[in-house]
Amino acid sequence: MNNTISPRLVLGKGLLPHQIPRQRFFLEESLPENSFNVQLVYGPVEKRQVNFEGNLPGQVSTFASTLLSLSNGRYRLYATTREFGEISMGISVWESDDGLTWEPSLLGQREVTHQPSNLIFFEGLAGNQLAVGQPQIVPLRDGRWRMYFWKHGDSQVRYLTAESEDGLHWRVTGEPVLYHPGDKETREIMRAGEETEFSEEYLVRKRLLTNDATHVYYNSVLDRYECYSVWLHPAIPDRRVETDNCPGMHRLIHRRLSQDGLAWSEPELLLIPDSNDPWDLQFYFLAVQSYQDFLVGSLGYYRVEEGQQSMDTELGFSFDGGRKWHRPVRGGFIPRSHPESKLLDTVGIYASNTWIDTGEDWLCLYTDTAFPHNAKKCLTKPAAATFKKGRMVGVAAGVNPGGFLTPPFFPTTSELRLDANIKGWLRAELCDGFGRKLPGFHLMDSLIIRGDNQNHILRWKTGLPTRYLYQCVRIRFELADGVIYSFSW
Q1: Which residues contact 430 (CB under 8 A, 6 or more apart)?
Q2: Closest-CA residue to 336 (of 306, 357, 367)
Q3: Per CATH, the architecture of 22-42+394-488 is what?
Q4: Which one, 53, 120, 225, 328, has least CB within 10 Å?
Q5: What are phi and psi of 108, to 5 degrees?
Q6: HSE-up of 75 (CA within 13 Å, CB side)?
Q7: What is the pLDDT of residues 410-436, one digit of tens each?
Q8: Alpha-carbon torsion angle 179, 184, 190, 191, nearest 10
Q9: How many Cβ atoms from other residues are within 10 Å of residue 338's Cβ?
Q10: Please, where in the chain does CATH 2.60.120 lie?
């Protein structure tokens, strides 16, 4: 598809306070109050096939890519393309109507491949044009766009910026904003600093040191730029794994903030493995997006020990703007295929920077592989998963009945709704704010709920709880063989 004139890029808009649904999910680290015989589980996921058309060679990676909406209703993807012909790694541009079938946006830039291509050629980029990747696109306040990307080759591994008016033609601007330990000049500065007194140059580079797999966003609510990346902690003996491709470091997640997207704040540590994690776990990436009034994170769950070297995408949730993260279910929410499967997603699942909103469902693009992370060569393939927006994490009970008590809330409608898949049975009890049963709304008065429905209505023999509108109440649930994903009022 030839885009001589690009449709305008747009970003999704957040909800206003009065538009946020009155809905309670179960996304915290711990189980609800008074829980018994229940556990937190991921919701169901359906894997989908993704097609990149146009007979263009190479491997397209959607990991650490950028998905944006166009004003004409289509989607645009800025992806990393690897290993074809004379290209070792480049940034390619694609468009799609549904997020599953992608067409190349032929930019007409012949400087890279000597023929029309959907690869971006950067004006002002010194050295190797054929070793760039992991593009992050954010809007600027004057209507233009900025891209952050990793530049490899020429003994460099640096996070550079470029700017564009149409999102297709880019010019490199300014100095690097971050550095990788593999950058030759940075490595020499760091070595000299460790051997002698710490110089100002040493501290500047150490402050800006990170791994790849970096994600940058513009927060329109707080009018600031946010960078989520890897912090490299020196390896400690009882967690060190020599077979890893970076045995001297442990990967953690940190964040930096900025008003202009160029001068970043001091690093702030967000996520470090704890006592509930495997001994060898590291965090490889954190992609972040907003939903309703909280943040959803796609966390790189990386087992580094020999025989695994596997990557999953775990779901995390933040209710304070990204500082504290809850991890209710440890490990990948998109299940990997069995090792003996002929599918490619048996070892690694790497999520993209955001999900596509398809109405009732989320569409998550990811890059999968059957190769361990430390493999010298790695075949990857784009794939996708769809799942219900509200069914990220649920509270589940088995054949032995379980239950719990919800936090207090103020009902604004007499129809209390439940998103649940109940194969056995479920009943509910209305309580006051202190958890005491309200007359006529005991468990024994509840009408049994069964089936898979995002809009079950809680009912009692005495009717609906109209008399308790705008009062502080709680619900006690008891269920067998089922999952509750949320309730709303």
Answers
A1: 437, 438, 441, 460, 465, 468, 473, 474, 475
A2: 367
A3: Sandwich (2.60)
A4: 53
A5: 75, 15
A6: 21
A7: 999 999 999 999 999 999 999 999 999
A8: 160
A9: 9
A10: 22-42+394-488
Reported confidence tier of residue 444, pLDDT bands at 50, 70, 90: very high
Q: Please identify which residue in the block is written with the tokens 């329109």.
A: 220
Question: What are the φ and ψ backbone dihedral angles of 380, each rounded to 5 degrees?
Answer: -125, 165
Residue 116 backbone phi and psi in degrees, to 5: -55, 135
Phi, psi of 86, rounded to the nearest 5 degrees:
-85, -5
Q: Which residues make up the CATH 2.115.10.20 domain(s) of the chain?
A: 46-389
Give the Cα separation of 402 and 131 in Å (integer): 55
Residue 339 neighbours by CB under 8 Å, 6+ apart = 346, 347
| Model confidence, pTM | 0.93
Q: Which of 405, 428, 403 is nearest to 416 (CA)?
A: 428
Q: Rounded CA gap, 390 and 454, in Å?
A: 9
What is the C-alpha R_g of the chain? 25
pLDDT digits (tens, 9 = 90+) for 230-246: 999 999 999 999 999 99
Residue whose token pair is 């023999």: 461
How far apart (Å, rounded) are the C-alpha atoms in residues 371 and 273?
24
Q: Which two tokens stand for residue 19?
A: 């538009």
Residue 489, class by beta-carbon neighbours within 10 Å (0-12 exposed, 13-18 middle, 19+ buried)? buried
Nearest by Cα to 74 from 102, 50, 104, 97? 97
Helix or strand run (H / E) with residue 193:
helix 184-195
| Alpha helix segments (H runs only) across 196-316 | 200-207
d(CA 165, CA 408): 49
- pLDDT band per the 50, 70, 90 thresholds, residue 177: very high
Enclosing H/E stretch for 402: strand 402-405
Q: How far apart, in Å, are the Cα atoms of 251 and each of 104, 180, 186, 194?
A: 34, 13, 19, 21
DSSP states of 96-156: ESSSSEEEE-B----TTTSS--SB--EET--S-SSBEEEEEEEE-TTS-EEEEEEE-STT-
* DSSP label at residue 37: S
Q: So what CATH class is 46-389? A: mainly beta
3-state DSSP call for residue 197? coil
Residue 257 contacts residue 224 (beta carbons within 8 Å):
yes
Closest CA to 145 of 158, 157, 131, 135: 135
Calpha distance 179→410 (Å, rounded): 50
Q: Is residue 384 predicted with pLDDT exceeding 90? A: yes
At 316, give phi and psi (nearest 5°): -125, 160
Q: Render 265-289 in DSSP notation, one character per residue.
A: ---EEEE---TTS-TTEEEEEEEEE
